[in-house]
Amino acid sequence: MLKTLNTAATGLMAQQTSMEVTANNLANVNTAGFKKSRAEFEDLMYHTVKEPGQASGLNSVTPTGVQTGLGVRTAGVQKDFALGSAIMTKNPLDLQIEGSGFFQILTPEGQVSYTRDGAFKKDPQGKMIDKNGNFLQPEITIPADASGIEISNSGEVRIIQGLSDIPVQVGQIDIVNFVNPAGLRNIGRNLYVQTPASGQPIATRPGLQGTGQLAQGQLEGSNVNIVDEMVNMIATQRFYETNSKAVQAADQMLQSTNNLR
């Protein structure tokens, strides 16, 4: 009976994790570049009373055996890097990667991070920064007298100055890709950092080596589907209630055993 309590308790913890993941997805439904997550589970060790295939007679074996499971645990939380919907902004420094890839961001601590959020701005010196003041890498400076900014699909940044109508290139935006983007570690602020699971960053121009091209004047919205997340939330709640009923049933059975004369 104690095994039942422990097994049901692992189910409660697993469903709690699933609910936390779903709640985070819903909370970030309007976060630019956000990628939804999915909790993945695996069963725990089994208590084996009789091995499958164990000899049961002179010329016979047990066809199934007797094994009872000891519960479930969270195996991982998988990021879904499916492309989010486009949000048109008409801001010349808003960029969307139409495909795979990440922008490179340099934090104040000197760490290179990666993001799908392409909402860039200018600092007082004209350098392109994200909404937290982190510098886009490689650094690109927009002159103060620039009357127009054009960013091509391949990442070339051109400006119009003064009365001239001839664009002048002032920088090149490169993006990076990873063998396993799901292995990146979230650090908040729409940023990821490299881990041994993600592999080394592969820097390239947009549109090359399987990366997406850039689209100016638009952002990538969250890829969270509210209907799917609501269904997941209701299902998780029902699973949690079912596991709690198993705990109550095991407790009642223990009480009945204690009351035996």
Q: Could you name the key traits of this structure?
A:
261 residues; 2 domains; 3-stranded antiparallel beta sheet; 20 strands
Descriptive report:
The structure is a single chain. The mean pLDDT is 93. The strands form 8 sheets. Strands 7, 8, 11, 15 and 18 form a 5-stranded antiparallel sheet that branches. A 3-stranded antiparallel sheet has the order 12-13-14, with no helix packed on it. It has a two-stranded antiparallel sheet with strand order 1-4. It has 2 domains: 2-80 and 224-258, no CATH class; 86-220, no CATH class. β12 and β13 (156-161) form a beta hairpin. The protein is built from 2 helices and 20 strands. α1 (2-27) runs antiparallel to α2. The chain is an alpha+beta fold and 261 residues long. 23% of the residues lie in helices and 32% in strands.
What's the β-strand tally?
Answer: 20
Low-confidence stretches are none
Q: How many helix segments?
A: 2
Order of helices and strands: HEEEEEEEEEEEEEEEEEEEEH
- Rg, Cα atoms, Å: 27 Å
Distance between termini?
19 Å
What does the average pLDDT come to? 93
Write the SSE topology:
Elements: H1 2-27, E1 37-43, E2 46-50, E3 66-69, E4 72-79, E5 86-88, E6 95-98, E7 102-106, E8 112-115, E9 121-122, E10 128-129, E11 135-137, E12 146-151, E13 156-161, E14 168-172, E15 175-177, E16 185-188, E17 191-193, E18 202-204, E19 213-216, E20 218-220, H2 226-258
Antiparallel strand pairs: 1-4, 2-3, 5-20, 6-19, 7-8, 7-11, 7-15, 9-10, 12-13, 13-14, 15-18, 16-17
Helix pairs in contact: 1-2
